[in-house]
Design goal:
Layout lengths: L1 E5 L5 E5 L9 H11 L10 E4 L20 H9 L7 H10 L6 E6 L5 H12 L9 E4 L3 H14 L8 E4 L15 E4 L1 H10 L10 E4 L2 H4 L5 H10 L6 E6 L4 H10 L3 E6 L4 E2 L3 E8 L2 H15 L3 E6 L2 H13 L4 E4 L5 H12 L5 E5 H4 L7 E6 L4 E2 L3 E2 L1 H8 L1 E2 L6 E8 L3 H11 L3 E3 L10
Parallel strand pairs: 4-9, 4-10, 5-7, 5-8, 6-7, 8-9, 12-20, 12-21, 13-15, 13-16, 14-15, 16-20
Antiparallel strand pairs: 1-2, 3-10, 11-19, 17-18
Bound molecules: adenosine-5'-diphosphate (ADP).
The site of adenosine-5'-diphosphate has 14 residues, from helix 4.
């Protein structure tokens, strides 16, 4: 029996059901990233700005004071430990807080400060004395809405009269109930229901409309249409803001449909490189042989912290069981776990409680564990049709040039997979040396 799965790059893959690969769940990955995030993600690129009116002056700020925020909001920001605006906030905040309000489309990878920026904008525009919804934020899932709400509560800690309401499934509201909270965060389906069917929210009174995680949003059936129906009922003077971590054509088309006359801000991602990674491969006969090779290098890989990648859940589980039976302390990060369980495993790994983490592609995608210096490809990443999956190889092993440390990568290769490895070597124009697993002296 075969089933259809979506690849990381969005392409469709047919896979055997009993050999299931983890399927990418954009919303789950996004939540996981938020749960494990500890600090801002840096980028050495410049922020690109496209103004709707190129002749108007472009402001950027280096401090939060320059924004002339309400005292209680500034206090909230400092209480969160923010000292100065992030790179994207330097440009985005003056636009978002301008009078008259300006619309904005902003794209930068997760962790660069987008959420904090639009929450600051909502909190600064809200009138605490008016007891009805004034800011509306759409999020792709229940959990992401809650996560954003928590940040509103944190940043708005000293804005005592400002309150948040969640328009999410399970939060049952009777028709005609009077909502007195100023900020509403919810998923498109429930918000639509609250606005049009239950008449709980008067959209004509909304001042700030935020569409968060647009890339995840359009990935969910129906959410683009729901969002557009909501947007159409907003007053023309309402400020409209859209955020996305990625910017494929589909996201861009959606953004342009929903945000009129926008300013556009983009911050490119730090590119990954294999330059400072020493890559090796060990030729093996079959899976048991690969396992033996792994055991042979185990002493070297546990000098630092290592992530071992398998192609399927089943392989990852098998390997974990084998290693535990042989007395190694490893943990398994698998797609069967809830997002909270995954976050806690990653946290333990980060804290050094485990030195080796076994996982599949999808789980570890986009997870940045800085202290990992050793990566093992127990299985080579391949696409259907037996082509190497270059992008995934780079994501597993590559480091960002400026911030990354030196690293080691080991590939366990069955003989028939050697041509694939050679293709990878050619593709990246970087050498992958053969290693005799019994002779570890070759690794400096
Ligand atoms: P994004 O929405 O782009 O994923 P977030 O706004 O969630 O980014 O910010 C990522 C992390 O950085 C969060 O932990 C957040 O608290 C923190 N952060 C955001 N802005 C700042 C800042 N100006 N200074 C320090 N930390 C910040």
């Amino acid at each position: 029996k075969s089933t259809t799965a979506r690849n990381i790059d969005g392409s469709i893959n047919n896979i055997e059901e009993d050999d299931e690969e983890d399927v990418v769940d954009l919303a789950a990955n996004s939540l996981l990233n938020k749960l494990i995030r500890q600090s801002l993600v840096e980028s050495s690129h410049h922020v690109e700005v496209l103004q709707k009116d190129p002749s108007s002056p472009l402001y950027s700020v280096k401090t939060f004071e320059e924004l002339r925020l309400k005292e209680e909001l500034l206090k909230g920001i400092y209480a969160m430990g923010f000292n100065r605006p992030s790179k994207i906030q330097e440009m985005a905040l003056p636009m978002m807080l301008a009078h008259p309000p300006q619309n904005l489309i902003a794209q930068s990878q997760s962790g660069t400060g987008k959420t904090a920026a639009f929450i600051l904008a909502m909190l600064s525009r809200v009138n605490a004395l008016e007891l009805f919804p004034q800011c509306l934020c759409l999020a792709p899932t229940y959990e992401l809405a809650l996560q954003t709400g928590r940040v509103v509560e944190q940043m708005g800690k000293f804005c005592v009269d400002v309150q948040v309401m969640y328009a999410i499934r399970g939060n049952r509201m009777l028709r005609g109930t009077d909502i007195t909270k100023q900020i509403v965060i919810g998923t498109p389906g429930t918000v639509l229901d609250w606005c049009f069917k239950r008449k709980l929210i008067d959209l004509t009174k909304i001042r700030v409309f935020v569409l968060d995680e647009a890339d995840v949003m359009i990935d969910t059936q129906g959410f683009s249409d729901h969002s557009i129906r909501i947007q159409r009922a907003l007053p023309s003077e309402c400020q409209m803001l859209l955020f996305s971590a990625t910017f494929e054509d589909s996201v861009w088309r959606f953004a342009e449909r929903i945000i009129p006359d926008p300013n556009v801000i983009k911050l490119r991602k730090e590119e990954l490189t294999l330059n400072n990674i020493r890559q090796y491969y060990v030729l093996c006969e079959h899976r048991k042989d690969k396992y033996q090779a792994l055991c042979n290098i185990y002493g070297s890989i546990t000098i630092g912290q290592a992530i071992i990648f398998c192609q399927t859940r089943r392989n990852a589980k098998w390997l974990t069981v084998e290693m535990i039976q042989d007395g190694h302390q490893v943990s398994l990060l698998s797609g069967e776990l809830t997002v909270e369980q995954r976050a806690s495993i990653i946290q333990r790994f980060r804290d050094g409680k485990e030195k080796v983490l076994i996982t599949t592609n999808v789980c570890a995608r986009g997870i940045d564990v800085k202290q990992v210096t050793i990566v093992v490809n127990f299985d080579l990443p391949v696409k259907q049709g037996e082509e190497p999956d270059y992008e995934t190889y780079l994501h597993r092993i590559g480091r960002t040039g400026r911030f990354g440390k030196k690293g080691l990568a080991f590939n366990m290769i069955e003989v028939d997979k050697l041509p694939l490895l050679m293709k990878i070597q050619d593709h990246f124009n970087s050498s992958i040396k053969q290693l005799n697993a019994e002779d570890m002296d070759e690794i400096e």
